[in-house]
């Protein structure tokens, strides 16, 4: 599926502008991770873009989230590798543990976008250009900051061979590349 078609599909199912921005940020991070880890940037980017396609439909219920996504993505002929990565970014719904690099990359990549966004929003200008790697790493340690962000999922970056500091830098830079689309 072409990227523009995937974006239209996402917007058909996700109406909340901030959720769409989260998916755009996740796409950018996944493309950067693919380059870093030798993955397919198009495939990884599409997984990032489409990973939360059912979040409004399932009202964020982790026991259901990605079950509907699987049906939607199959209906549109999305390749099985993307569908499986989308499913596995939410282990809760499937009763399985992530094992593949692609799956861990998506889970960690989409999760760190929330921490980076929250970090940007505490700066006076609310811009990604102000976010420093050291600030993200520091805020990883403060569990009260962006409390809903699961730090253990972000730390899966180290299981795929990308140390936290490098992962934070890579993710910040990826998000900066789409800062205009993110309004940040």
In short:
The chain is built from 11 helices and no strands.
Describe the structure.
- By secondary structure, the chain is an all-alpha fold.
- It has one domain (3-182): Hypothetical protein af1432, CATH 1.10.3210.
- It contains 11 helices and no strands.
- Helix 2 crosses helix 10 and helix 4 packs antiparallel against helix 5 (80-88).
- The longest helix is centred in the N-terminal third of the chain and has 21 residues, at 17-37.
- The chain is globular, with a radius of gyration of 15 Å.
- The chain starts with a helix and ends with a helix.
Keywords:
11 helices, globular, mainly alpha, Hypothetical protein af1432, 184 residues
User: Tally the helices: what do you get?
Assistant: 11
Mean pLDDT: 97
Biggest sheet record: none
User: In percent terms, what proportion of residues is strand?
Assistant: under 5%
Beta strands, count:
0
Percent helix: 55-70%
* Spans of at least 5 consecutive residues with low confidence: none
Radius of gyration from the CA trace? 15 Å
Number of domains: 1
CATH architecture descriptor text: Orthogonal Bundle
Q: What letter string, H or E per element, gives the SSE order?
A: HHHHHHHHHHH
Q: Give the CA-CA distance, first to last residue.
A: 28 Å
């Amino acid at each position: 599926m072409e990227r523009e078609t995937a974006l239209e599909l996402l917007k058909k199912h996700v109406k909340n502008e901030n959720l769409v921005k989260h998916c755009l940020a996740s796409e950018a991070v996944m493309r950067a991770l693919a380059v870093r880890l030798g993955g397919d940037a198009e495939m990884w980017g599409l997984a990032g873009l489409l990973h939360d396609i059912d979040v409004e439909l399932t009202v964020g219920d982790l026991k259901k989230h990605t079950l509907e996504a699987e049906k939607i993505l199959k209906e549109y002929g999305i390749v099985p590798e993307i569908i499986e990565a989308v499913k596995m970014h939410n282990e809760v719904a499937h009763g399985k543990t992530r094992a593949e690099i692609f799956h861990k990359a998506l889970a960690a990549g989409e999760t760190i976008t929330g921490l980076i966004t929250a970090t940007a929003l505490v700066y006076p200008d609310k811009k990604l250009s102000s976010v420093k790697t050291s600030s993200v790493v520091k805020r990883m340690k403060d569990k009260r900051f962006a409390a809903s962000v699961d730090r253990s999922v972000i730390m899966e970056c180290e299981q795929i061979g990308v140390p936290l500091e490098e992962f934070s830098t890579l993710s910040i830079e990826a998000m900066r590349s789409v800062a205009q689309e993110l309004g940040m």
